[in-house]
Fold these 4 entries.
Entry 1:
Amino acid sequence: MPAFANLVSDSTLVQETIDLLRVSGGRANASQIVDVVFKVSHIDEELAGLLVSDLIKDDRRFKIIDGNTIELQSYDSESRLLKELDFVVVDIEATGAKMPPNRIIELGAYRIRGGRIVDDFVTLVNPEISIPRFVMALTGISNEMVKEAPLFAEVAPKWLEFVADAVRIAHNAPFDTNFINHEISRVYPGHRMINPHLCTVTLSRRAVPGLANYRLDTVSDHFSIPIIHRHRAGSDALATAEVFIRILERLEEHGVRDLAAARIFHAPDSELASVDASNNETPAGSAPQLLPLVPGL
C-alpha cells in the first residue's frame, strides 16, 4: 500500500495505544503496550518491540526509539495561525445518504491558501451501482455520465495527494468526512484520513447568528455568493469555499487566529469539555443535524 502521510490505521488496537501513550506522558515501552493493549504479559522485550512496530508501521503519529520505546508525536497544526494553514473545502454527491450500500458519484474540492482559492479537484466517480432516479433528477448526474468516469480506487491516490496535510472543510462536515473515509477504507482496508476538519454549518451558526437556517443556499445568499449548479459537487464546494473565506474574516474579528481557537469557537460552550478531535457532535441546544437524502444541505 502506498504511504500517504494523511492516511492512518483505523484499528482499535492503534487507538488504544494512542490512549495509553496519552495517559503515560506520551511515551511507553513496547512491553507495557503489549501488556495493556494486546493483553499479553511477561513477553520478551524484543518480541514486544516487533509486535508493536508491526502495529504502528507507517503511522506518522508514532516514533520508535531504540526499537523498544514508543513515543506519540505531536504536530503543530493546532497552534499554527489560520492564515498559515491550507484548507481543502470538499463536497460530494452520492447515490444516497447511507453507506454502505451507497457510493460517491462526484467529488469536488478547492484549496484555500492565504484567504484565496489556489487549486481545485473535481471529478465524477463511477459508483459501480445504479444511480436512483431521484438522485439523477436532483443532481443532473446520470448513469451515462459516470459510465466512463474513474472508479474511486483510481481517484483515491490523487485525492490523498491533493489534500496532503490541509485542514478539511465541508458544509455538514461529518457527512462528507464519514462518506469519504468509507470509500477510502474500501481502497485501503483498515485505514482512514487523519486530516482535522471543521464544519461550515457549525461555524456559520457562531459567526453569523440569526439566519433562518444554515443550509448552504441560505448562508451563501447571506454573503451574496452564487451557486451555479446546486447539488453538483464542484459548484457546491466552490460556494462553500467562498463562504469559508468570509467566515475566516469573521474569525479574525472574533480574535480566533489558530486552529485550536477555531475548534473552541466551532463548539458551543456547553460542549467544550466533551468535543472530540473530529468535531462530530451536534451543538447543544440546537435541533439534531439530520442527514439529507443526498450529500449537501
Note: The longest strand covers residues 104-113.
Entry 2:
Amino acid sequence: MAKRYWGKTLLIGVLLTVLLLSLARYTTRELPFFSNLKSGLRDFVYPLARGTKFVLEGAQGITSYFKDINNLRREREELIKENAALKFELNRLKEVEQENLRLKAMLGYSQENPQFELVVAKIITREPTNWYKTFTLNEGKSSGILRDMAVIDQKGLIGRVLNVSSLNAEVLMITDPRSSVAAVTYNGRVPGIIKGRALSSELTMDNIPLNLEVRTGEMVVTSGQGGVFPEGIPVGYVVSVTKDPSGLVQVAKVRPYADLDRLEEVFVLKDRR
C-alpha cells in the first residue's frame, strides 16, 4: 500500500510539473493567474537574489581589498630595496668623486715638486689608541719603500716609515710622543726639535734658544738635520711661545698643516731627484 501511495504521489508531481511548464509558454494576457503568480514569486525572490548578490559582491570586494593590500606591501618593499640600492650607489659615487679630487690634488703636488720621487699609498688601518699614533699603508718594499722614509701629503709633513714589509708599511706620525723632527722657523731660521704630544693634535717645538725670537703664526719647516727628513718640508705654524720651566730655553706650540685625523692617501718620499 505504501509503495502504491508514493508511486501515485510521484506521478501526480510529474504531471503538475509538465502542466506548469506547458502553461508557462502562454502570455500573461492569456493567463492572468500565472501573471499574478509570477509577479508574486518575483517579489518574493527579488530581495533574496539582491541580498545574495550583495553578499557575493561584498565577499569579492573584501578579497580584492586584501589582494590590493598585499600588492601594495610588495610594491613598498621593492621600493624600499630600490631606494637603499640607489642611496648606496650615490654614496659610492660621491666617495669615488672625493677620492678623484684628492688624487688630482696629489698629482698636482707631484707635478709641482719634480725634485721628489714619490709613491702614492692608501691608509688601510689606524692605531686605535690615542697615545700611539700610527697607521698602515697598502704599499711596502715591493714599491721601493724603506724604513725611515718621510711621509707627506700636499699640505705638509705626516711622519716617517717605522716598519715595512713586502706589501705594507707602518707609519709613525709626527704627533706621536715617540716622534722627533729637526726643524727651523721659515723666516727667522730659528732651530728647534718638533715632538709629538700624547692625547693632542698639536706639536711642541722645544730647545729654542732664549735669545732668538719666534713669532706667532710663523711657518716651521724641516731643517734637514738628522738625515731622516729632507729640508724644507712644511710642518706647521707657531700658535704660542713660552719659556721652558727650566728657564733655559723657549718652547713653542705648533699646529700641523696636514689634517692628520682625516688622512686617506699619502706620499712616501723615496728620494730627491
Note: The chain has a mean pLDDT of 79.
Entry 3:
Amino acid sequence: MSDEKIGKNPPTVDDLTPQEIQGVIRRDRKHLAEFCRRLIPIYRAIARSRLVATSQHSHAKEEDLCQSLMEATLREETVRKWNPELGQLSTFLRVFAKRRALDLLMGKADRSCEKLMEEADLVAASDKQKPAPSMAPEDLMLWRQLQREALANPNPQYVELFRLHFLQGYSPEEIAERIGEDVQNIYKRIQRMRKDILSLRDRLLQK
C-alpha cells in the first residue's frame, strides 16, 4: 500500500538512514538517485522563491536554477560537510541552496544582509545553538539581536512566519501548505518582513 493511500507524508532527506547517507557520499548510483528524488522538491521551491523575489521568475529559469543547485550540491560534496549536531540534513541543504541561489542571482552588496540571515539558519535550528563556522562573532551577535526584536512582535502571525521561514528554513510554498494560506500572500508577507529586518538592522547598527 502506498504512502498516499495510508495518509503518510512522502519520505524526505531527513528520513535517509546513516547507511543511505554514506551511500550518497560514496556516490552510489542507487542512493544518489533516491537522494536527488527527495531533494528536488526542496530545491525547486527555493529556486521559485528566489526568482520571484528578484522578479526573474519563469518556469525555464526555475528548472535551470534548481538543476544548478543540485549540481553544486553533488559537485561540492555538501552532504559530507553536514554535521548532525547542527540540525537536520534538510535544514543544512536549505541553507546551502539559499546561499548558492543568492550567489547566482544577486550581487555581493545586495545579499550582505540576506547572507547574514541565511547563515544564521543553522545556528537557529541547532538544539545546541552552536554558531555556524563562517559567521563572525559580531554578525552572530547582530543576528541574535534581530531575532529578539522579531520574536517580541505583538502579532503572533508575524512571529510564526518569522520562525518558520527565517529560523526553520521553510519555503513560502511549504509555509502556505502548513498554515493553509495562499502562497502569494506568504510571498508578500515575507518580503515585508525582510524590509522590516533590514530597517531594524540599520537602526541597531546606528546605536
Note: Confidence is low (pLDDT under 50) at residues 1-6, 108-112, 119-133.
Entry 4:
Amino acid sequence: MIVAKAPEWRAALSFNIIGTKTDPRVLERMFKSIAPIADQIVVIGDDKAGLDFFRVARRYTDDLYMYPWRNDFALARNRALLHSRGDYIAWIDTDEFYEAAVASRIYNLMHRPMGKAYYIWQVSAKSDGDVIYVPQVRIFPNVPGAKWEIPIHEQILPSLQRIGVPTELTDLRVVHYGYYKARQVVQKHRRNLPLLMRRVRTNPEDAFTRSNYEKAMAYERSVRRRAI
C-alpha cells in the first residue's frame, strides 16, 4: 500500500509595504526579492507615491490599497496589517531587497516559526564606504494586539512585548540603499524632521522620539554649516 505523504506545514507570510516615490528599477528589485517567498503582498499607497510606483506594484499584487497620507507611518503600517491574511507579517521598504539566499532562509523559517518575532539586520551601504548595521524586528506573528506605534521611526516591538511574543536575533540581512547618496539622506531627513517636531510637542514624555529629534536637529545644523 502506498501512503501519501502529508504536505509539510508552513506559516503563511504576508509582506507589508508602504508606498513611497522610488526609482522603478529599485522598486522592481525589492518586489522580485520577496515575490518567491510571499504568500501575500499588501501595499499601502497614497497620492505622493507616483504613477511608477503603482504601475510596478500592480504587477506583483492585487492587494493594493489607497489611503490619504496622514503624516503617520505607524498608521500606514497598521492599515497594512488590517489587510494581511498571513499567519506571519514581514515588512520591507521600497529601497531595500533580500538576496536570494536570505529569502530562502526566511521561507524555511516559516516551517517552524515558533510563535516568535525575529530581528533582521538592516545593512545600509554609504557612498563613502561606510556600512551601517541596525537590528530591526522584521518578522512577527499576525496576532491580536500586535500594532505599530509612534508616527515617525515607528515601532512594533512595544506591542509585541505587551502581549508576550518572544523575540530572537538572527543573522539574516536586508540590503538598504536609502543612505547610499548624500542627497537621499538629506531628503529623508527633511521629510522626517517636521514629524519629529510635532511628536515632541504633542508627546514630550516620549524619550525615544526626543532622542531621534535631537539627533535630527544636530544633523540639520551640520547640513546648514556645510551649505555656508
Note: Strands lie at 13-18, 40-45, 64-66, 88-91, 96-97, 117-125, 131-141, 167-176.
